[in-house]
Design a protein that fits this description.
The structure holds two protein chains of two kinds.
Chain A lengths: L1 H12 L7 E8 L10 E4 L4 E4 L5 E5 L5 E7 L6 E6 L6 E5 L26 E5 H4 L7 H4 L6 E6 L3 E6 L7 E5 L2 E3 L17 E8 L3 H4 L6 E7 L8 E10 L4 E12 L2 E12 L9 E2 L4 E14 L2 E15 L15 E2 L10 E16 L3 E17 L8 E19 L2 E16 L11 E16 L2 E16 L18 E17 L3 E12 L3 H5 L1 E4 L4 E4 L7 E13 L3 E25 L2 E23 L7 E14 L12 E9 L6 E13 L15 E12 L5 E8 L24 E9 L2
Parallel strand pairs in A: 1-7, 11-14, 31-34
Antiparallel strand pairs in A: 1-4, 2-3, 2-5, 5-6, 8-13, 9-10, 11-12, 13-14, 15-16, 15-40, 16-17, 17-19, 18-21, 19-20, 20-22, 22-23, 23-24, 24-25, 25-26, 26-27, 27-28, 28-29, 29-32, 30-31, 32-33, 33-34, 34-35, 35-36, 36-37, 37-38, 38-39, 39-40
Chain B lengths: L1 H16 L5 E8 L2 E9 H10 L1 E3 L2 E3 L1 E5 L1
Antiparallel strand pairs in B: 1-2, 1-5, 3-4
The chains are: A mainly beta, B alpha+beta.
């Protein structure tokens, strides 16, 4: 056996040929003249360089494989194409002059293509774009992405919603690591931080093929900031202040790249007092703090690449909207005095995420081996200081082995196995269990074929998944602990056969895309076993052990028009979910809490889409106008509206690039307008929501000749609008979201 | 230099060894409404939150809040 392993390792390493230098030149496709100072890189291995004044560039120790190269230069169209690095020939890269460049072209992690070449509906947004108008949290910033909204509990807790679906139907990935963090609870926020973030990729619609079970609404994939270029290092500190909550964010970061090794290390501390309402009062206990640490260490040499990523987060989140009164009044939840000191109820979250990612490159293929572990610990303190109301821990160990093979120049295959072992446990002492202890084992196998023919690209794939769920009986526990759950044990298997098929046709002026994809989601422990209060979400919930798995099929089409100064996109979709599980508010009340039941409808129809444009007028070259409209309509087979759907929204931003060359150099000014339309399609006993407008204004600038000191300032909710988001838990209490918020941030590049 | 190390060590040891005694105002829900029972700290706080407050032979669950 040992001999076989040794032979296998030898065969793998034998592909690593001797050190080779890749040289190339970037030229203009029309004039054949050199294009100076182009940015040249390989996104999949995170290696970049700048061309010199004569367009020349070189790389050392690259894998001798087929890799995607990305080349960009000012006033040229960004080029992304496959090249064979095993060839000794000088690489000649021809760039096409372009009158206008709309935005930076992003290569998606999921398909390895530029956005318009993707077959599935994927949005990629950089951290800079997400935070250009000073969003307080990552969750709040995500609403800039068409088709993405968020629900919230105060300012500190928010959850993403993709095309109307959230919670267990949206899967979060962090650099290829699946995050499990009690996301089933409405008051359990997203376990992601903007710290060290590079970009966010959102896959809209069922995405089981590459991401496994549960992703019926889609996937949010957070990708770390790139490693710095070779032989460079960077050290910075930054600080942000927000007036509304007297909030501060202080951060330090270091990036280095020496030889074969590279590393990114970041840490931050965030602290917000109670937020202020438009009328000047404060929401009691909306205060929160968090501290985060993130590190990535990478090693790359010839045909081998290793990344070890570790993230630690500790958060204390106040839960607003809490009262001891049996019939609470709005005045119970507000105060005329702002406070910061921690009080109850509150959540303490402690998360560890570890990912070990190996890639071995062969000439026409590569093998990705990922092993990860996430541990998420959640304590909810309700009315006792030393004894948590509930204490939940979920430990998830996941693997993903994927082999990508280039069969022909225009045909490739991805195949792999993926799975996870999840252990849900209650910790003691605590007062109550919200979900029982359980073990879950997932395994899946998949294959995905990709074929390109002239302007067409086709993709099709199949996947099989099986989940074993073992809910442990809680009947032996003290009855006072289990009065919020069904104590019966349960053993069930869930299976899913899923597919994805589609095409894209890219011409100079138009891109047409169509995709059909499926997904499945097994009911969660809370849906199966809940039977009691959940103070965080301010309701009493009842589950059912007989719930079946949900299966979804989405048809997604898109038409994009690309003119010189205008881009248009129309992206309708239809998501058909069988055995859809949803919460229905009943007529009953338990104390002051409304009773909600998990029910299942034979069919749910979710349809809608995103429509947007980007206008960049010829006469005012510095001006960019972006606008998009997103809507989801959800109903049962009988045509009854399904509740808890976000309001349709129109997001418009007007950005004016300045880039003046003075001591204080302004980058741009952005005016953003978000219009949330009324939500009149509501579930039984759910209340309507009225429309509202939000206006944000921001600018970014650098100070000094070396641009070491950069700053950003602006005003969020400039009109001090009083508004209640449809999916804000504070809406049921008649409370508004935050009022006007002035922010100012500084970043100093020490090195 | 030696003094600096010594001072740093003392500060770290001081911060590590200084205990932070948690205190909270507590109450219980009696049939006639909320009854405040005053401030409890440290082990007393932990005890009363776990075992409750007994009055006239009746044991009441105690709720406490930071202040």
């Amino acid at each position: 056996m040992q001999a076989k392993v040794a032979i296998l390792i030898y065969l793998m390493l034998s592909f690593s040929l001797s050190a080779q230098e890749i040289k190339g030149k970037v030229i203009d496709t029309d004039t054949k003249q050199p294009v100076p100072y182009a940015k040249v890189g390989f996104p999949s291995i995170n290696v970049y360089t700048d061309a010199d004044s004569l367009g020349g560039f070189k790389f050392k120790y690259l894998p001798q494989s087929h890799l995607k190269i990305k080349v960009s230069a000012f006033d040229y169209k960004v080029l992304v194409k496959d090249i064979d690095l095993a060839s000794d020939e000088l690489l000649i890269i021809e760039l096409t002059p372009l009158h206008t460049v709309f935005e930076e072209v992003q290569v998606t992690a999921s398909e390895g293509k530029v956005q318009r070449e993707n077959i599935t509906s994927i949005a990629v947004v950089s951290k800079d774009e997400l935070f250009q108008t000073g969003a307080t949290t990552l969750g709040e910033s995500l609403i800039q992405i068409p088709g993405v909204q968020s629900s919230s509990v105060g300012m500190g807790i928010s959850k993403p919603i993709i095309r109307g679906l959230s919670g267990m139907r949206v899967v979060t990935y962090n650099n290829g690591l699946r995050i499990e963090n009690q996301q089933w609870g409405d008051d359990h926020g997203m376990a992601a931080s903007e710290l060290g973030l590079g970009k966010v990729e959102v896959v809209k619609g069922p995405s089981s093929l590459l991401y496994g079970a549960d992703a019926l609404g889609g996937v949010i994939h957070f990708l770390d900031e790139k490693y710095i270029r070779k032989d460079k290092d960077e050290l910075y500190i930054s600080s942000k202040f927000e007036s509304n909550s007297m909030g501060t964010t202080n951060e330090i970061g270091y990036r280095t790249h020496k030889g074969k090794w590279r590393a990114n290390i970041h840490a931050n501390y965030i602290n917000h007092a109670d937020f202020q309402l438009p009328d000047g009062n404060f929401i009691k206990n909306s205060r929160f703090w968090s501290t985060n640490f993130k590190s990535s260490i990478g090693y790359r040499h010839k045909n081998f690449q290793l990344n070890i990523r570790y993230q630690l987060s500790h958060r204390r989140l106040g839960i607003p909207g809490h009262s001891h009164n049996a019939q609470p009044d709005v005045l119970d939840f507000i105060s005329n005095k702002r406070q910061r000191k921690g009080t109850l109820p509150a959540q303490y979250n402690f998360d560890h995420f570890l990912l070990i990612e190996n890639t071995i490159f062969f000439n026409r293929s590569n093998l990705l081996l990922e092993i990860g572990n996430t541990n998420s610990d959640l304590k909810e303190f309700d009315e006792k200081v030393t004894l948590p109301f509930t204490h939940l821990n979920v430990n998830n160990t996941s693997y993903n082995f994927r082999y990508s093979y280039k069969l022909l120049e225009n045909m490739s295959l991805k195949t792999g196995v993926q799975g996870m072992a999840k252990i849900n446990r209650n910790r003691f002492p605590s007062s109550s269990l919200l979900i029982p202890d359980a073990n879950t084992l997932d395994n899946g196998v998949y294959a995905l074929m990709d074929y390109e023919y002239k302007k067409w690209r086709f993709q099709g794939g199949l996947r099989y998944d099986i989940r074993f769920l073992n809910v442990l009986s809680a009947a032996d526990l003290d009855s006072s602990l289990v009065n919020n759950i069904n104590t019966d044990g349960l053993k069930r298997n869930f299976q899913g056969i899923n597919y994805s098929a589609g095409f894209v046709r890219n011409a100079k002026l138009t891109s047409v895309r169509f995709n059909a994809s499926s997904g499945y989601r097994a009911p969660h422990l809370a849906e199966l076993q809940a039977d009691g209060f959940h103070h965080g979400s301010l309701r009493y919930e009842k589950g059912s052990q007989t719930l079946k798995a949900e299966h979804a099929i989405q048809f997604d089409a898109a038409l994009e028009l690309h003119f010189d100064h205008l881009e248009l996109i129309i992206n309708p979709y239809y998501n058909r979910i069988s055995d859809f599980i949803y919460l229905v508010q009943t007529d009953e009340f338990e104390g002051s809490f409304p009773v909600y039941e998990y029910k299942q409808t034979d069919l749910a129809h979710l349809f809608g889409g995103e429509v947007g444009f980007h206008y960049h007028p010829h006469s005012i070259h510095r001006l960019h106008i972006n606008s998009n409209f997103s809507v989801t309509i959800a109903e049962t087979n009988n045509g009854d509206p399904i509740g808890l759907m976000p309001q349709p929204n129109v997001n418009t931003s007007i950005r004016f690039d300045i880039n003046n060359n003075h001591k204080i150099s302004f980058k741009h000014v952005v005016l953003e307008h978000i219009y949330h339309l009324p939500q009149n399609r509501v579930g039984p006993n759910e209340t309507f929501s009225v429309d509202y407008h939000l206006v944000n204004l921001a600018t970014q600038f650098t100070i000094g000749d070396l641009n070491r000191l950069s700053a950003s300032t602006g005003i969020r909710n400039l009109l001090n609008t009083q508004y209640q988001g449809h999916l804000s838990s504070l809406k049921n209490l008649g409370l508004s979201q935050p009022g006007i918020n002035v922010f100012f941030s500084l970043k100093y590049q020490i090195k | 230099m030696k003094n600096k190390f010594l001072l740093s060590g003392l500060i770290i040891a001081g911060l590590s060894l200084t205990s932070c005694k948690k205190c909270a105002e507590c109450h219980y829900d009696a049939p006639n409404g909320i009854v405040e029972i005053g401030e409890y700290c440290g082990d007393d706080l932990e005890d009363i939150e776990q075992s409750g407050y007994t009055k006239d032979g009746v044991n009441y669950e105690v709720h406490c809040h930071d202040h």
